[in-house]
Write a structure and sequence with these properties.
294 residues, 77% helix
């Protein structure tokens, strides 16, 4: 039941960028290329951390918002909001996810001598949980969500390449792209709850500025995301034609996303939010990794 509510399919938004960040700083054996045995172990730990961290963040969200969700016709069927599952089940799940995440972070030190994931593990959990409370006091809640997902390429890079890997400006531009991209499409998603958020006194870009202005701000953020992608192509020599094709395709998809929303209104939100953005993430992740390997 929890799996239904936390929407595991939405992992597609962050996971490809974590994998891409890991490959940008992948351990190499000089002319021999990537050290695949070492990389396989690192990637396995990264994937476990991603699943545990995302599950943690989503369960925090569902528990924190259970009373709000219960009052919202769109979300009243969620398992904690409806009382289908008791709160203690959610708390138990949170504890399990935190233990799994922190234990896996420690394995980077045990097996690879990199203790930075252990040092940063608890702050990361706190950061990605914080978003769930931001709509209570700021319409910039979408930016906080973007920041939570933007941590994925940076965290994966630290886990694989150590803290010094953050000296690569491409990683920061990639994180900036994720932040603006996610904030932009989350503002679109929040259009569904515009009236409810206003009535409940909750904050969001649509509740603060209205439908038209929310669309405009979403477009501006996506334009910024595109600029960040262009910057990645410029500063990172490992990226070339293949990733360039991925970037061009992502731009087309983002433009089409806003065309769909303009033409179909609220009916176009599911396609604009999940389908098209899922394609953006997978395209960029796959083409980026392929370019690194070529």
């Amino acid at each position: 039941m929890i799996a239904r509510d936390i929407k595991l399919a939405h992992s597609v938004f962050a996971l490809p960028f974590a994998v891409l960040g890991a490959f940008v700083v992948a351990p190499r054996i000089e002319a021999g290329g990537i050290d695949w045995p070492r990389m396989a172990g690192l990637l396995t730990l990264v994937l476990v951390c991603m699943v545990a961290a995302r599950t943690w963040a989503m369960v925090v969200n569902r528990l924190a918002d259970r009373d709000i969700d219960a009052a919202n016709p769109r979300t009243k069927g969620r398992v904690f909001a409806s009382g289908t599952l008791p709160t203690r089940v959610g708390l138990t799940t949170l504890a399990a996810c935190a233990v799994l995440f922190l234990a896996t972070c420690a394995l980077f030190g045990v097996f690879f001598g990199n203790w930075w994931p252990t040092i940063l593990g608890a702050p990361v959990l706190a950061w990605i949980a914080f978003y769930s409370f931001t709509k209570r006091f700021t319409w910039l809640c979408h930016v906080f969500l973007g920041g939570a997902l933007a941590a994925s390429p940076l965290a994966a890079a630290i886990a694989v390449g150590g803290i010094d890997s953050l000296s690569n400006p491409a990683l920061w531009l990639l994180a900036g792209m994720v932040l603006l991209w996610v904030a932009g499409f989350d503002a679109i998603y929040a259009l569904q709850d515009l009236d409810f958020d206003r009535e409940a006194g909750l904050n969001s870009i649509p509740a603060r500025f209205g439908w038209r202005q929310a669309n405009t701000l979403s477009r501006i953020m996506h334009a910024g995301a595109i600029a960040c992608l262009a910057g990645v192509l410029v500063v990172e020599p490992m990226f070339g034609v293949v990733f360039g094709i991925g970037v061009a395709s992502a731009i087309v998809l983002l433009v089409y996303e806003h065309v769909v929303l303009t033409k179909r209104g609220a009916a176009g939100i599911p396609m604009a939010f999940f389908t098209l953005n899922g394609m953006v993430s997978v395209l960029l992740g796959v083409t980026g990794v392929v370019d690194v390997l070529l």
